[in-house]
Amino acid sequence: MCCAVCDGELRTAHRQRLKDEEGDLHGSGEYRCHKILVTLHQDQLKTTTTVAANRDFPEDRIWLNGKEDNINHPRLQSCLREIRRLARKRRSSGDDNISKILNYKVHICSVNNFPTAAGLASSAAGYACLVYSLARLYGVEGELSEIARQGSGSACRSMYGGFVQWIMGEREDGKDSLAQQVEPENHWPELRILILVASAEKKHVGSTAGMQTSVKTSPLLKHRAESVVPGRMEEMIEAIKKKDFEAFGQLTMKDSNQFHATCLDTYPPIFYLNQVSQRIIGLVHRYNAYYGTTKIAYSFDAGPNAVIFTLDPTVNEFVEIVKRSFPPESNGDPYLKGLAVSPVSLSQDLLSAVETDVFPGGVSYVIVTQPGPGPMESQDISVDLLGTDGFPNASG
Amino acid sequence: MCCAVCDGELRTAHRQRLKDEEGDLHGSGEYRCHKILVTLHQDQLKTTTTVAANRDFPEDRIWLNGKEDNINHPRLQSCLREIRRLARKRRSSGDDNISKILNYKVHICSVNNFPTAAGLASSAAGYACLVYSLARLYGVEGELSEIARQGSGSACRSMYGGFVQWIMGEREDGKDSLAQQVEPENHWPELRILILVASAEKKHVGSTAGMQTSVKTSPLLKHRAESVVPGRMEEMIEAIKKKDFEAFGQLTMKDSNQFHATCLDTYPPIFYLNQVSQRIIGLVHRYNAYYGTTKIAYSFDAGPNAVIFTLDPTVNEFVEIVKRSFPPESNGDPYLKGLAVSPVSLSQDLLSAVETDVFPGGVSYVIVTQPGPGPMESQDISVDLLGTDGFPNASG
């Protein structure tokens, strides 16, 4: 059984006060991050997960990207427990096969085709995919995002395709995280998303730990959450619905910058943007200034990689500029991955308007993609990661 | 005639609403930046200016750092006009010599011994020094900071030594800028200031232009000005008065970070901190974490150079760490300038706690200095920059 998910973010973060069940306000960490996200297409960025249950397995085990990992991780255990609980509850309706495998242990095998923990929301995709796969195994249908979010707070939004509104929770266990679809993946067919991979280094600060420190120490974050983001959220949803790229792009960039501003206002400060990120930001603004309109927008999550939004007719030209500004270092790997890009020649005017110093190797590679659906079951047996013996095969 | 000034900043920026003469609020740009600054000692960082008036000079002229510059610059003209106006007003009290030279044109020659326009407040020091020199020439005494601020909004604070409170103005002409001394330069004798020169490149965005864009576009700046800085200003003055380095250092760092956060929240965003700045910030926090107390603080103005504050007993050790982290590239120039630093050996414990990757050449050189007095007239004729013919000599 296998599924494929991934997502990029066009962030509009927002933290709102959260009431607990008794109606009281929580303590210091009472803000919730509110975002709009785009699920990326699995043809380009995907997590593939295979799960198998067998009477001969003595224990639950998991392999991630080719190495066995700790099955006792609390978030993982929480997902497993929850989905088994749901499956048991529904068993009464009677599928003997399900009853049987609920007594078996499982083997889980998962691989990403993009760098883990480098700000590409790998854990969100991973948990979403895992929960989806387990649900198929145990025949659980319906609302899975509640289970997924027990793995990673952000996983619940990866259960949906297209444009997703996500209210991130505060809790370690992700139980207060909520997601819903704003528009499906085919709503804005011209929209393209380019991932400029600036570095595959593991980031210094995980996004969960970083956000918790920001909530505690950044005086600007509270203001951002209460006074800036609510208005931007509404404008963003409106811009998506109207397919208004000018508004969409500006909001995306302003909000990304403000998120990183609150990281810098954290004590000690957190830097996710490196010099390559800064150069990409400069390049985008010069490009837009040349055309006098927002043709390109950037967003950076908890890492240096740029998520670039644009419309189909601009892709070829912008990719050409990125290639000239950050020429590939010839290590044999392809520089362009994903959707096809055609070479174009650039006018001298445009070049002198946007170019500054060339930075070879600053961008390792570019993934060209578009909005995509949520997790899907693959019918293609060749993508299975577990062999007939229940252990990872060559691709797992 | 010559004078020597310079200053580093321990910034506590604050923008407060400004009432104009009629008591109305100004329009969009109504915030005033409120800071505490330290004037640096002229033994290490100085601007030297010589002015001369002569009946044979056909016109006013100025040379800056060895090259003739535009005497018609509006700010410069404003300073000249204002000081001549003051001199004329006081002439009634009768000095024939002053009356005479008021009819002459002047030659001005000024040099900095530190990089211009790289975030070391060169224009503040330059205008302060110019105004002081012209005042001596024309025999104008008393309050000069009002004139200096017509040159550079920040120049008025360079008219004072020691710890200075500065309410920066909004106006292009600097007329709404105010400064006053908090404590004199000998108040905190153990305080040391290290300038880590990260880059002598000209900065992309001047600090005045940058601030004006921030006021117009950053939603976080308004909140910072109204709700964060006023409290910090009071705490900072208290920390200086009590010589409480822990409080002083933390406030300095938090406020520097928040200033750069609002630069990032500006649209398009402004980056003054480069990768060297980011590494220095990381190093300082690891060093303080190792000792469990704030022994070092950093502040960055509108550029990548770090202004480091510490107390005398920490200087040797920290300089050694900077030297190891950013080893000098052997171009023959001295790496350490200013006050004497003694080599020390570092414990293995400390090294493994603070060090990461080594970045050769990241810091070009380090200036070790301390708080200093305001502008002073030099009695040493050998520092004169204009020869007996009224034109720049070899040192000008």
Automatic annotation (TrEMBL), chains A, B:
One Pfam family named in its UniProt record: MVD-like_N
Domain named Diphosphomevalonate decarboxylase-like N-terminal: residues: 38-179
GO biological process, one term: cholesterol biosynthetic process
This protein's pathway: Steroid biosynthesis; cholesterol biosynthesis
Enzyme nomenclature, EC number: 4.1.1.33
Sorted UniProt keywords: ATP-binding, Cholesterol biosynthesis, Cholesterol metabolism, Lipid biosynthesis, Lipid metabolism, Lyase, Nucleotide-binding, Steroid biosynthesis, Steroid metabolism, Sterol biosynthesis, Sterol metabolism
GO molecular function: ATP binding; diphosphomevalonate decarboxylase activity
GO cellular component, one term: cytosol
Catalytic activity line of the entry: (R)-5-diphosphomevalonate + ATP = isopentenyl diphosphate + ADP + phosphate + CO2
Domain Mvd1 C-terminal per the UniProt entry, residue ranges: 193-376
NCBIfam families, per database record: mevDPdecarb
Function statement: Catalyzes the ATP dependent decarboxylation of (R)-5-diphosphomevalonate to form isopentenyl diphosphate (IPP). Functions in the mevalonate (MVA) pathway leading to isopentenyl diphosphate (IPP), a key precursor for the biosynthesis of isoprenoids and sterol synthesis.
The family this protein is said to belong to: Belongs to the diphosphomevalonate decarboxylase family.
Name this protein carries in UniProt: Diphosphomevalonate decarboxylase
Species annotation: Engystomops pustulosus (Tungara frog)
